[in-house]
Amino acid sequence: MNFCCSIVKFFVVLMNLVFWIAGIGIVALAVWMLVDPAFTISLAQEHQNYHYALFILLAIGILMVLLAFCGCCGALKESSCMLVSFFCCMLIVLTAEIAAGFWAYQNSDKLEVFVKSNFKHTIANEYREVHARTEMVDHIQTHLQCCGVDGPSDWANTKYNNAKGGLLDLSVTNKLSYSVPPSCCKNGTERSLCETTRKGAITTSVNPIIYKTGCMERVIQEVKRNIQYILLVGLIVIAVQLFGILLVLCLCCAVKRNKDDDYKD
Q1: Residue 183 · residue 148 · CB < 8 Å
Q2: Is the dihedral angle over the CA atoms 105, 106, 109, 115 positive or is it negative?
Q3: Dist CA 118 CA 150 (whole Å)
Q4: What is the pLDDT of residues 158-207, one digit of tens each?
Q5: Please, how many CA atoms are within 13 Å of residue 74, restricted to the half-sphere of its CB?
Q6: % residues pLDDT > 70 (the chain)
Q7: What 3 state SS string does the chain have?
Q8: Torsions phi, psi of 178, nearest 5?
């Protein structure tokens, strides 16, 4: 093969090595999330849904590893069959990624409602009932400096408060008196002061020691603050994949042309 084709072959192999490393990273992340159920992204209402999502992520990682292996072997062995297979698979993956991005953008409101509903369910029914969910909620509230989904009042009608001796009933007065977890206390607050002010106080919602902002608002703020970086990463990933597809197509054509020339000779 001539010099240009050799350069193309080098970049195809290099791209697939990066793709292979990324696939291994996704597999490692999926395995980590499977063995660590307290991972922050675990917002699904049911454990089954959470595991389904992780198995899909694991399958994507394995697929990336296999595709990268196929691409590397096809480039090194100059196999037209493997290169064409890799080209077709990469084209399908790229199309699926673009379609998924458009779907997520078009259904962003539905996704927000879904996450918000599931997080409220977790706070109301699973905090202190499921250890993994308790750790997850505490981590989110501490890391994002928030309390509840929309605010501290989300903790009023929860099993967390019911378990403290029936603080909740149908009366309005009792609904004004509720406790919030220690993770709702602002960072740097002394433990004794936090324990005193967070428990069953009518002034919980106006207490300067308790976070007032809901976690859903914090998540939206974080996404909006970093949206340019999210879009930039997505565009870079798509551009790299498109560039790789074009390189594979060029290499495939060059291999076929060289084989035709060898056949004529």
Answers
A1: no
A2: negative
A3: 13
A4: 888 875 544 444 344 345 678 889 998 888 888 888 887 777 654 555 67
A5: 29
A6: 82
A7: CCHHHHHHHHHHHHHHHHHHHHHHHHHHHHHHHHHCCCCCCCCCCCHHHHHHHHHHHHHHHHHHHHHHHHHHHHHHHCCHHHHHHHHHHHHHHHHHHHHHHHHHHHCHHHHHHHHHHHHHHHHHHHCCCCHHHHHHHHHHHHHHCCCCCCCHHHHCCCHHHHCCCCCCCCCHHHHHCECCCHHHECCCCCHHHHHHHCCCECCHHHCCCECCCCHHHHHHHHHHHCHHHHHHHHHHHHHHHHHHHHHHHHHHHHHHHHHHHHHHC
A8: -150, 165
- Residues in contact with 164: Cβ distance below 8 Å, sequence separation at least 6, in sequence order: 179, 200
Non-local CB neighbours of 174 within 8 Å, separated by 6+ positions:
167, 168
